[in-house]
């Protein structure tokens, strides 16, 4: 329970006023619960969407869904997306890229990336059949957390020291990674059945391509690139749900 509370406090803005005096190794212990935290975020988002859809209609409901997602996460992954794009598309060497990503200021590439994130999310869901909305909204954050765990397991940390991502890498174990990823797959099957699993596999391909690109630039992952991967995974999952509905299922 201690590790779950820590993950909730780190990845969400849910007001859990409990001082657990976390140590560095507690973050790596908590990775088992990352998919569950993603599921909680997804359920919250869907609850806000459903209420808004009932009273305001589908168009405004999508806006409220997007706002709910930013509210509950504090925009932590959007921040990572912006920093990642500012750094990776700066045409600099590894050390300078890492410096740019650490800068709290946002540049042109970051603004463009966040704007595209908004556009893709709202466009995909606005075109999606209503019966698939629940799967897409609820499971996307959970799938993203599961794929981030996969990235952590197969990629080293790019910074020599420091950074929030390093908290999770410092005492990471294969056992915890397997447990976390397995729990994500099980939840996909319970909530999303075959369509959700196929969409997750498609999203994995996209995330692996993103990993290869990042490693070619900075030889590893950081907290920012993992946050960017989370955003990309959510959008990819929703896109594959939409494509599967139109063409196969």
From TrEMBL:
Family membership: Belongs to the CobS family.
What is the recorded function of this protein according to its Swiss-Prot or TrEMBL entry?
Joins adenosylcobinamide-GDP and alpha-ribazole to generate adenosylcobalamin (Ado-cobalamin). Also synthesizes adenosylcobalamin 5'-phosphate from adenosylcobinamide-GDP and alpha-ribazole 5'-phosphate.
GO BP annotation list: cobalamin biosynthetic process
The record's HAMAP family line, in alphabetical order, gives: CobS
- Does the keyword Magnesium feature in the UniProt annotation? yes
- Which subcellular locations apply to this protein? Cell membrane
Q: Which reaction does it catalyse?
A: alpha-ribazole 5'-phosphate + adenosylcob(III)inamide-GDP = adenosylcob(III)alamin 5'-phosphate + GMP + H(+); alpha-ribazole + adenosylcob(III)inamide-GDP = adenosylcob(III)alamin + GMP + H(+)
Q: Which pathway does it take part in?
A: Cofactor biosynthesis; adenosylcobalamin biosynthesis; adenosylcobalamin from cob(II)yrinate a,c-diamide: step 7/7
Q: What is its EC number?
A: 2.7.8.26
Its top-level enzyme class, in one word, is: transferase
Identify its membrane topology class: Multi-pass membrane protein
Per UniProt, the keywords (alphabetical) are: Cell membrane, Cobalamin biosynthesis, Magnesium, Membrane, Transferase, Transmembrane, Transmembrane helix
Q: Which InterPro entries match?
A: CobS (IPR003805)
One Gene Ontology cellular component annotation? plasma membrane
Gene Ontology terms, MF aspect = adenosylcobinamide-GDP ribazoletransferase activity; cobalamin 5'-phosphate synthase activity
Q: Which cofactor does it need?
A: Mg(2+)
Q: Where are the transmembrane segments?
A: 31-49, 55-72, 133-154, 197-214, 226-244
Instruction: Supply the source organism for this entry.
Output: Lutispora thermophila DSM 19022
Provide the protein name.
Adenosylcobinamide-GDP ribazoletransferase
Output the Pfam families linked to this UniProt entry: CobS (PF02654)
């Amino acid at each position: 329970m201690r590790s779950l509370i820590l993950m909730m406090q780190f990845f969400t803005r849910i007001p859990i006023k409990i001082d657990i005096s976390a140590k560095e190794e507690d973050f790596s212990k908590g990775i088992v619960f990352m998919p569950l935290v993603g599921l909680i975020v997804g359920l919250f988002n869907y609850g806000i969407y459903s209420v808004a859809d009932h009273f305001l209609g589908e168009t405004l409901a999508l806006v409220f869904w997007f706002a709910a997602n930013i509210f509950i996460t504090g925009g932590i992954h959007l921040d990572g997306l912006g920093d990642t794009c500012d750094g990776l598309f700066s045409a600099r060497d590894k050390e300078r890229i890492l410096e740019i990503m650490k800068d709290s200021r946002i540049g042109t590439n970051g603004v463009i990336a966040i704007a595209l994130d908004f556009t893709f999310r709202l466009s995909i869901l606005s075109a999606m059949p209503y019966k698939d909305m629940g799967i897409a909204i609820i499971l996307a954050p959970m799938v993203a957390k599961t794929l981030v765990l996969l990235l952590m397991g197969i990629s080293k940390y790019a910074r020599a020291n420091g950074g929030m991502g390093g908290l999770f890498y410092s005492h990471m174990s294969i056992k915890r990674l397997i447990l976390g990823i397995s729990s994500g797959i099980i939840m996909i099957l319970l909530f999303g059945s075959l369509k959700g699993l196929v969409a997750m596999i498609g999203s994995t391909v996209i995330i692996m391509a993103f990993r290869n690109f990042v490693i070619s630039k900075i030889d590893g992952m950081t907290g920012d690139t993992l946050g960017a991967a989370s955003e990309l995974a959510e959008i990819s999952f929703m896109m594959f749900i939409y494509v599967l509905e139109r063409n196969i299922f």
